[in-house]
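Before the break, one more example. Copy the sequence into your notebook; we will annotate it together after we see the structure.
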Amino acid sequence: MTLVERVERLAGMAEEPFSSAMTDLVGEMSNAILADPETKVVPQYVALAYWMRAAAVKRLAKDFLASIPDDEVLAPRGVALHLPPTNVDTIFVYSWALSALAGNANLVRLPATLSPQAQSLLRVVSDTLAEAGQAERHLFCTYEYGGEIEREICRRVDLRIIWGGDAKVESVSQIPIRPDGLTIGFPDRQSMTLISAQAYDSADDGACDDLATRLFNDAYWFDQMGCSSPRLLVWLGDDRECRDDLYVRLEQVIRQKNYSADPAVGMAKLGLANDFLAEAVATSAQRYSNELQVAEVEEPQAALLRTTGGGFFGDVHVESLDEVRNFVGRKVQTITHFGFGRNELVKLARSIAGVGGYRIVPVGEALQFETTWDGVPLLSHMTRRIVVRA
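Here is what the structure looks like once it is written out:
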């Protein structure tokens, strides 16, 4: 049976959203990830499993179902096609899991080459589906972009979710799906961290060490290449001692975690720092190690747009939160924060509404997947509503 024929069979396999069988299966997959010797030692996979745990899934289902009006019946959208990115190897599971909970049959197009870690995760996912008798409803495969196979597949799907860069979203979106289908694109994004120098200066050593660890998790789990990984650190208040102290602590965490950047990445970071200096984007740059380079920037927007990954940060200070709006554009996704109260954060959110910035979350939660992503409520788009009035 060809891949296109298998996709045709998916058309009749959608089920009721949030069925007990599917919520149980997602919980079982969480347990399997935590039990497998190869996946349970990967921090981002442990975080994925925690998000998929049975109690969390049931709470998610309860909250979403409670939002449906009494005169509407929730229905699956149908067949969903997921096109995950290559730089974050957990997105394919997050995207699939939400769609599966929504009752859809799913086709996940994976990159042609997977890392050994990602292969282990795929094995656990596939084995769990097979044991539950769900392998036919949820296909994981690869095929070439732009060819006739992709066109035939797209003609048969009700929902297409494109995770990747601008070029990928634009290229894939040109291929039509069903006339009543929906395409959601998640293009290039950049993220930043906002820190109150006053709060940092008042924090004890334990809190400062904890902040450095959480910043490491946000930035280094995917080599700083995830859309929600911070590239720019924005300090409210110009306290150089605080800034230097955090970077020294971050360098210590890097050593403790045995993170190592490829020498070529280190050279790329050095080159980018010199480019920033030559172009007056930055006024100074400091190399703490091959894994950590910091450029004190005068042009924060330029620093957000350009990165090499692997631990390259722009650093800038502001005197007021109102200044942050000046360099938040449409491509800014996540703003992590330390030392701010809710009222300040709500004010910030309102100031950038319609400009950019789709998530404002504590440092350490940059990579935490949420059902609203880039401002898009995913479950609402993964389902349909049937209006019923007696």
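The longest strand covers residues 282-289. The chain has two domains: 3-188+374-387, 190-362. Try to locate both features in your own notes.
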